[in-house]
Amino acid sequence: MADQGNITTPHAADLNAAALRYATAQGWAMADGSYPIRPANMHGRQDLESAIRAVGRGGASHDAIRVHIIKRAQAIGLSDLIPDNWAADGSLTGQNSLEGTVEIERRYTSGDTGKAELRADNGQKRIGGYAAVFNRQSKNLGGFIEVVDPIAFNQSRGDGWPEVIARYNHDDNQLLGTTAAGTLRMGIDAYGLSYDVVPPASMSHVVELVERGDVRKSSFAFRTLDDDWTMTDQGYPLRRLVGAQVVDVAPVNTPAYADTSAGLRSLAKKFDADLTEVRSLAEADELRRFFVRSDGPSPARPKKKGMPAHAAAAALLARREDPYV
Q1: Does 279 fall in a domain?
Q2: What sequence ranges are listed for the domain Prohead serine protease (predicted)?
């Protein structure tokens, strides 16, 4: 009988070398042993969710990775978990595929957290900074706080940051650069989501404002692909962004209003609650009622799709050998 290794462990990140070999031999993983997705009765749902979020970390063709994931999802009867913008051949239906269906949200950083700064390279002036910082709790966004998970932008990165633009104050008339033209570069490190843009000569006034320190904040716009709702240690509602499609980044002097309507809709969906009720509780700063029962001390739990995303990310980061790469 083939050595299955630790094949009954609950998460793909826990699979040892023998288990990965077995998964590959069974056709559950790609030929190189990456992206193992076991049967549904062997924690396949958790494997599938982790694989979908990890596409951007793979070194192979991302289209090929998506094809493998789609086939495994079909085989274990979980095709409904495949993102809507994944085509059968592994390609994406385009950056604009979510327009009109998922609204744009904006967040910003300030001060030394992710400030916009002027950079120089061979006489070429550039503007850069961190548009988002990982694992840092936001201010109160209207009844809940938010954290950006380190895996949140993996899909955008894996897709090559398609059609991401940089605009001063998110203004269409203040275009600074684009990933399509190569004038905007995006990156992810342990700290957060970084950007580096070469502004055109016509935007020299923005360069001057950043250079003088008048503009110190950075911002990013995004569409949420996946989030996870829990509570902080202090018992306050916490939204963790675990999947986000980057739309634009920007140095800003006037931060965009943090419209929380998308977040509140997400919470309403998690609990099958009426959106009007959710908004009313948010205004009263009482969203915690969805997490704690009023008739007893037992906490109510939001609907989860297997392992919480932040726990999966922690398990992946804790491994020296990443099964998804």
Answers
A1: no
A2: 117-263
Residue with tokens 């992946």: 316
**245: containing domain:** 105-264
Q: What is the DSSP letter of 85?
A: T
pLDDT at 306 over 80: no
Structure tokens at 63: 């289209």
Same domain, 260 and 168: yes
**Residue at 224 is within a domain:** yes
Q: What is the pTM of this model?
A: 0.63
In this structure, the answer to whether residues 123 and 70 fall within a common structural domain is: no
Phi and psi for 169 in degrees, rounded to 5?
55, 25
Contacts of 74 (CB under 8 A, 6+ apart): none
Rounded distance between C-alpha atoms, residue 65 and residue 54, angstroms: 10
Question: How does pLDDT run across 218-230, given as a tens digit for each residue?
Answer: 889 998 888 899 9
- Tokens linked to 282: 């948010």
pLDDT 10s digits, 74-121? 999 999 888 877 888 887 765 444 444 457 888 887 656 667 888 877
State the Cα–Cα distance between residues 147 and 151, nearest whole angstrom: 12
Q: Are residues 122 and 18 in the same domain?
A: no
Q: Do 255 and 113 share a structural domain?
A: yes
